[in-house]
């Protein structure tokens, strides 16, 4: 039940972080979802979330987090039996951790590769990685890592039937595991010690560690039973939610289709209005062009008429002046003629008086 709630909480958190574009938070939430699905043995789903998380981390150039995602992906491929893919991702993670100088990360990658090669029955390769990882875990003082590497080395020497070396590594691991109270570590070490003492024909200690192994196994088995129950419940809730989401998505799609149709109609109306506006503007511009052209023609004609009027006025003025000159000449001639006539009459009168 708590796992289902955790998934729901992370899913809601993811939506909120996406709304505010919190990329780092999105990557972390996706990684957490991947971890939950990995615990539920849904490795494909876990890988899907880890890859999504890794891609965002790549965008942020967070090398340490990228290496962690690669390691998580490798672990899930190993868990589902795809050893080739697991090795590919483990080696990529190791390369980044070496490039960034992350000693703890390097130790974890080396330990993971050792476990992978052991699973592949390549024990000679596995022991090299176990020794290198132990050395680095001791350098950084990581007790959990030290205990894990010691278990792996002890297990290797049990297989090789080198009892003395196996006992040294396994007893060191048991001491650390008890100090840290790590049930899974205690269970694993107890199992290896039981096999070791059986190999050494020490029945008492073999029985002692067998009983401890069973105790730890049963304790963890209850957790496994709970996990299986949660997994079944989660699957049911997931299928139910998926069905509800399908109906909801169908309704949302109808709404989106209606909104899209309305939007398209609105766009067509706006397009028509813009077209009408452009056509109207062109008509106005054409009319304005015609008016301007007519104005220019009229202005030109008016100018020509004014120029012709000036010429006519000038010609009329000249004609008027000439006419005046002629009339003045006529008037002058008449005055002379009149004067002459007057003199002739005067002379004639005087002559009559003399007679």
> Any idea what the radius of gyration is?
56 Å
State the helicity in percent bands.
over 70%
Q: Which fold name is given in CATH as the topology of the domain at 2-246?
A: Serine Threonine Protein Phosphatase 5, Tetratricopeptide repeat
Reading off the top of the CATH hierarchy, the class of the domain at 2-246 is best stated as Mainly Alpha
Characterize the structure shown:
With 355 residues, the protein is an all-alpha fold. The chain has helices spanning 2-19, 23-39, 43-60, 63-79, 83-100, 103-119, 123-140, 143-159, 163-180, 183-199, 203-354. Helix 1 runs antiparallel to helix 2, helix 3 packs antiparallel against helix 4 and helix 5 (83-100) packs antiparallel against helix 6.
How do the helices and strands line up, and which of them pair or pack?
Layout: H1 2-19, H2 23-39, H3 43-60, H4 63-79, H5 83-100, H6 103-119, H7 123-140, H8 143-159, H9 163-180, H10 183-199, H11 203-354
Helix pairs in contact: 1-2, 2-3, 3-4, 4-5, 4-6, 5-6, 6-7, 6-8, 7-8, 8-9, 8-10, 9-10, 10-11
């Amino acid at each position: 039940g708590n796992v289902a709630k955790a998934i729901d909480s992370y899913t809601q958190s993811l939506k909120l972080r996406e709304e505010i574009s919190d990329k780092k938070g999105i990557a972390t939430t996706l990684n957490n979802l991947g971890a939950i699905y990995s615990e539920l043995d849904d490795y494909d789903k876990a890988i899907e979330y880890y890859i999504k998380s890794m891609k965002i981390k790549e965008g942020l150039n967070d090398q340490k987090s990228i290496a962690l995602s690669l390691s998580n992906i490798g672990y899930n491929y190993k868990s589902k039996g795809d050893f080739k893919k697991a090795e590919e991702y483990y080696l990529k993670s190791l390369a980044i951790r070496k490039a960034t100088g992350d000693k703890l990360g390097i130790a974890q990658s080396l330990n993971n590769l050792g476990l992978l090669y052991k699973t592949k029955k390549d024990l000679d390769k596995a022991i090299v990685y176990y020794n290198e990882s132990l050395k680095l875990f001791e350098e950084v003082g990581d007790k959990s890592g030290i205990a894990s590497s010691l278990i792996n080395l002890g297990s290797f020497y049990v297989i090789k039937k080198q009892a003395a070396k196996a006992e040294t590594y396994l007893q060191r691991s048991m001491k650390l595991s008890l100090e840290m109270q790590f049930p899974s570590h205690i269970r694993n070490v107890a199992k290896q010690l039981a096999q070791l003492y059986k190999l050494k024909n020490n029945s008492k200690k073999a029985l002692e560690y067998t009983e401890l192994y069973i105790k730890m196994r049963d304790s963890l088995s209850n957790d496994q039973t709970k996990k299986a129950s949660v997994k079944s419940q989660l699957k049911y809730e997931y299928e139910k939610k998926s069905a509800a989401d399908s109906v909801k998505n169908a309704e949302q799609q109808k709404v989106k289709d209606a909104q899209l149709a309305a939007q398209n109609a609105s766009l067509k109306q706006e397009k028509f209005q813009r077209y009408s506006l452009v056509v109207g503007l062109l008509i106005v511009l054409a009319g304005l062009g015609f008016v301007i052209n007519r104005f220019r023609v009229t202005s030109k004609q008016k100018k020509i008429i004014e120029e012709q009027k000036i010429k006519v006025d000038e010609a009329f003025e000249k004609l008027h002046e000439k006419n005046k000159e002629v009339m003045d000449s006529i008037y002058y001639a008449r005055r002379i003629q009149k004067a002459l006539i007057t003199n002739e009459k005067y002379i004639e009168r005087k002559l009559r008086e003399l007679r």
